Amino acid sequence: QVQLVESGGGLVQSGGSLRLSCAASGNIFGNNVVAWFRQAPGNRREWVATIRSSSTTFYADSAKGRFTISRDNAKDTVYLQMNSLKPEDTAVYYCNTIPERPWGQGTQVTVSS
């Protein structure tokens, strides 16, 4: 069974940066659309960014201009570079293919003001 493993989260001050990584067991990212999502306490999981196999990218309005999604097919890894972080970015961040596979554990991002 394919497993998705997110990493790179942590505690950062407002205005800081983090780079999240998403690795998969099995070579599944190369021909698939991959997306990042996040879920803050008490909220629904929300979409953050998507990258197609062609590397075309799409972003939620909250992420535009601050976040960058990228992929390294050789490493079967997808990244989310997050800059100018705000307290409202605090959430557990998840990655997944589209269509979805079983969700991983996510990685916690906490932005202090």
Characterize the structure shown.
- The chain is globular.
- The relative contact order is 0.33.
- The model has no long low-confidence stretch (mean pLDDT 94).
- The protein is an all-beta fold.
- The N and C termini lie far apart (40 Å).
- The chain is built from no helices and 10 strands.
- It has a 6-stranded mixed beta sheet, with no helix packed on it. It has a 4-stranded antiparallel beta sheet with strand order 1-3-8-7, with no helix packed on it.
Mean pLDDT: 94
H/E element order: EEEEEEEEEE
Question: What class would the helix/strand composition place it in?
Answer: mainly beta
Low-confidence stretches: none
Sheet of most strands:
6 strands, mixed
Distance between the termini: 40 Å
If helices are DSSP runs of H or I spanning 4 or more residues, what is the number of helices? 0
Q: Tell me the total number of β-strands.
A: 10
Helix content: under 10%
